Amino acid sequence: AMYPSKCVDHGIVQVLIGMAGQDLDGGTYSGAAWSLYHDQQFGYTTIFANQTYLHFNYFHNSDDQIADQFTLQK
User: Fold this and answer.
1) DSSP 7
2) Entry's Pfam families (predicted)?
């Protein structure tokens, strides 16, 4: 999460996924201090959630391998 323009703990978590335009964007956000993961491949995501946690997986479309994942706990 960010406040004001700095990463902070215990804030709102945002996930931005825009794989449909992957070939159109040169990755202008790559290397930004607030960006934890940046990838230029097509892929897909799965989300599992219950009352206690949310688990997010991002897979590369080319090999179906997990490229990134995280879990948020209440």
Assistant:
1) B
2) Metallophos_C (PF14008)
Q: Where are the chain's structural domains? A: 38-74
What is the rounded average pLDDT of the residues 11-16?
A: 78
Radius of gyration for the chain, computed over Cα atoms and rounded to the nearest angstrom: 14
Question: Which residue is listed with tokens 């209440």?
Answer: 74
What values do phi and psi take at 40, rounded to 5? -115, 35
Measured distance CA(25)–CA(46) in Å, rounded: 23
Measured distance CA(49)–CA(56) in Å, rounded: 9
pTM, to two decimals:
0.72
Laid out side by side, the sheet with 66-73 consists of 43-49, 53-60, 66-73
Q: How many CB atoms lie within 10 A of CB 62?
A: 10
